[in-house]
């Protein structure tokens, strides 16, 4: 059996592990346009901020590929799929045959057209290890850095940069930071925390023009204001990297469409991770869920099914654990409900920098924000995933000691004495 | 594999399991030194939940299909293929708390003394003995056994 995997991050590595559960012998070829041994993308901000050194970046041990008998083609780009011939074409012209193919090409930065964007040095995106390395060598103590976008990537970049320069400004079109995972109150606490560390924010605004001769010198904002700038980081968002899938005529909506086995519309071609669309079970809609845990889960399922097993993907929902300057937060599902039928249970203390918010619909937990008080968050996550009818549990959600003791005895015993998920 | 099972009917909520968990994961393995001299003091990896008259001690279930190992962004959290024990390679952990986000039992704790790391039950794997919580439970409310689920 010839397995070919395009990608080298969470979904791709999970697929190797999934395949090897069933098939110890089949040939696996892994292709990635990045030359690195598999590394953890979320750690690039830690690397930028010197919190993790090179040796701490790797997602699996150095002998991972040999141990799993994986042939790697690193630094090679897969540019085309010839589905009739069942071959992947590399940019070198070489063709690689497959019986089963996995597309785990992840995301690419979304960079909208901007006046003055073209032909300038010192404009970066922040998604790859090489991006962090380049920034690290370019940013000096006196560099004035502007980050466009106050989402997860933009703020993580800003946090990492704090170590390198005293002048970081984040420009965001929305009226708050982290608008997809936080509500106004939580966002305001996080923003203040970052401001205390020196990060500046310009909200409800965006960059409309980039000025400079060959390199960025200043940016003009929507409201006409000009900000001097030596380094510009574009962190507006990401898009599924579907270019390769397109060459095979695979069905793509915003991301690659897959069935519950993670197979695409073309036989023997699977897809997993950020490049796909998944069912968000909290809103019953297919959407892009570019999340590390989701990528691993999908990759493992894809690999397992490619190698003859039967495993089903039963949907996902947004979930994030992240922190800035020591202030942690865990959020999941619907955090800013709009429309009818939602109840919100909430408590917060701005001075002590904590907030808890739970969103309930039809007696089922559909989302939460835990800012600072994040302990045992997974119990809430499991209530969402398992769509547990809350009953009296609702009235305990906000308790600091919330735990399995609040559950009816029968469920608690089942959970605890079963001895773990299989 | 052998795991720890809590019998809530026998638990008196004394929290001796927490105390002995701290000692078992201390440098000195001595109760007085562990509590008085060691900084940072190790955290208990067993959590006693109490809502009298109910109390029980909960620790990692060492899931076969462990969400924490799959969600871990660095590869620090892993399951030993031979023993089945789920442990965190703390030197690789960055304290992002993604494992806490996905553990359905709430069995992973934050250790924020020094370098932030996730800490959890390792079934006292290094000791070669039965887990300290089980050994020291005065009312046999914790069992360490194979149940072949």
Please provide a brief summary of the model:
The complex is a heterodimer of chains A (422) and B (149). Chain A is built from ten helices and 25 strands. With 422 residues, chain A is of the alpha/beta class.
In terms of per-residue confidence, which ranges of chain B show pLDDT below 50 for 5 or more consecutive residues? Answer: none
Mean pLDDT of chain B: 94
Helix content of chain A: 10-25%
Q: Round the mean pLDDT of chain A to the nearest integer and report it.
A: 96
Can you summarize the main beta sheet of chain A?
A: 5 strands, parallel
Distance between the termini of chain A: 28 Å
- N/C terminus separation of chain B: 9 Å
The number of strands of chain A is 25
Oligomer category: heterodimer
Break the fold down into its secondary structure elements and pairings.
The complex is a heterodimer of chains A (422) and B (149).
Chain A (H helix, E strand, L loop, with lengths): L1 E5 L3 H13 L4 E6 L11 H5 L15 H4 L2 E5 L3 E5 L4 E4 L4 E3 L2 E4 L3 E3 L13 E2 L4 H10 L5 E5 L3 H10 L5 E5 L12 H13 L3 E3 L4 E5 L6 E4 L4 E3 L2 E4 L3 E3 L2 H4 L22 E3 L6 E3 L4 E3 L4 H15 L12 E6 L2 E7 L8 E8 L4 E8 L2 E8 L5 H9 L23 H9 L5
Parallel strand pairs in A: 1-2, 1-7, 2-3, 7-18, 9-16, 10-11, 10-16, 11-12
Antiparallel strand pairs in A: 4-5, 5-6, 8-17, 13-14, 14-15, 19-20, 21-22, 22-25, 23-24, 24-25
Chain B lengths: L1 E5 L9 H9 L6 H6 L10 E5 L2 E5 L8 H5 L5 E3 L6 E3 L9 H5 L6 E3 L5 E3 L12 H4 L6 E5 L3
Antiparallel strand pairs in B: 1-8, 2-3, 4-5, 6-7
